[in-house]
C-alpha cells in the first residue's frame, strides 16, 4: 500500500513539475500548447526534434528550464517504475495487489480531474506565477493577456507555400491590415529573424510568418490560392473588417454620448 501511495505521489509530482515548467516556458514567449508539449517531451525524454526545439536551445532561459526538466524526469521515471514494481509484482497476496490497484486508479482519477479542471488550472497558475516571480529571474509576463488572446483572437505561425496567395508580395501589396491581420515577424532560412517588418518587406516561399488576428481569417488565409478566387476572398474579408470597425465606431460614439 505504501508503494502504491508513493507511485501516486510521484505521478502527481511529475504532473506538477511539468505544469510549472510549461508556465515558465510560456513566460519566455512560447505559446501555451507549445510550452506544454516541450515540457512533457523533455520530462519524459521523448526527444522530439522540431524547429521549436532549436529555438529553445538558442534561448538561455528556455535551455535551463529544459535541462532541469531532463534531470528531474530521469529520476522521476526511475522512481515511478520502482514503485510500480513494488506495488504489483512483489506483494504475494491478491488483496494487497487489488488495494494497490485501487489506490492508483483512484489517485489517477483525481489527478485527471485536476488536470482537466479550469478552476484548478487558474488557481495553480496564479500560485506558480507568484513563485516564479519571487524566486526566479524569469520575466513573468502574461502574454495572453497583453495580446488579448481571447474573443477568437490568436497568434499563429504560417509557412508560405509556393502557390500561396501570400508568396512574392510585399506587406503593402497584401493589405493584411485591412483584413484585421498584423504580421509580427518573418522567419527566413539563412537570415536573421525580422521582427515588426515594414510595409516594403516581401513574403517569399518557405518563409514562416508570425501573424496576429482573428482565427477565422487565419483559416481562410492558410488555404488561399494565388488566383482570382484568392483575390475575391481577400476583398470579402476586407469588407467584413471594414464593417466590423464601422460597427465598433458607432458603439464607441454611443458610449461617448
From TrEMBL:
Ranges for domain RCK C-terminal: 142-227
Keyword annotations from UniProtKB, A to Z: Membrane, Transmembrane, Transmembrane helix
Membrane-spanning parts: 6-30, 65-90, 96-115
UniProt xrefs under Pfam families: TrkA_C
Single GO BP term: potassium ion transport
Sample GO molecular function, one term: monoatomic cation transmembrane transporter activity
Keyword Transmembrane helix: yes
Region Disordered: start-end pairs: 232-257
Protein name as catalogued: TrkA-C domain-containing protein
Species this chain originates from: Salegentibacter echinorum
Amino acid at each position: 500500500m505504501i508503494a502504491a501511495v508513493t507511485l501516486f505521489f510521484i505521478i502527481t509530482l511529475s504532473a506538477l513539475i511539468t505544469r510549472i515548467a510549461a508556465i515558465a516556458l510560456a513566460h519566455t514567449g512560447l505559446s501555451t500548447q507549445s510550452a506544454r508539449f516541450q515540457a512533457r517531451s523533455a520530462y519524459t525524454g521523448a526527444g522530439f526534434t522540431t524547429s521549436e526545439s532549436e529555438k529553445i536551445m538558442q534561448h538561455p532561459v528556455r535551455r535551463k528550464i529544459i535541462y532541469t526538466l531532463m534531470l528531474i524526469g530521469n529520476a522521476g521515471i526511475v522512481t515511478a517504475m520502482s514503485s510500480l514494481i513494488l506495488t504489483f509484482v512483489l506483494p504475494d497476496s491478491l488483496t494487497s495487489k487489488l488495494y494497490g490497484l485501487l489506490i492508483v486508479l483512484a489517485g489517477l482519477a483525481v489527478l485527471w480531474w485536476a488536470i482537466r479542471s479550469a478552476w484548478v488550472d487558474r488557481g495553480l497558475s496564479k500560485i506558480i506565477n507568484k513563485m516564479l516571480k519571487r524566486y526566479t529571474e524569469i520575466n513573468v509576463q502574461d502574454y495572453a493577456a497583453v495580446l488579448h488572446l481571447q474573443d477568437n483572437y490568436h497568434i499563429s505561425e504560417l509557412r508560405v507555400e509556393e502557390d500561396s496567395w501570400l508568396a512574392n508580395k510585399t506587406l503593402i501589396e497584401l493589405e493584411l491590415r485591412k483584413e484585421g491581420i498584423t504580421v509580427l515577424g518573418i522567419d527566413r532560412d539563412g537570415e536573421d529573424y525580422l521582427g515588426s517588418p515594414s510595409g516594403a518587406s516581401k513574403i517569399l516561399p518557405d518563409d514562416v510568418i508570425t501573424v496576429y488576428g482573428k482565427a477565422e481569417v487565419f483559416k481562410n488565409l492558410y488555404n488561399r490560392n494565388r488566383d482570382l478566387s484568392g483575390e475575391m476572398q481577400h476583398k470579402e474579408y476586407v469588407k467584413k473588417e471594414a464593417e466590423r470597425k464601422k460597427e465598433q465606431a458607432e458603439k464607441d460614439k454611443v458610449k461617448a454620448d
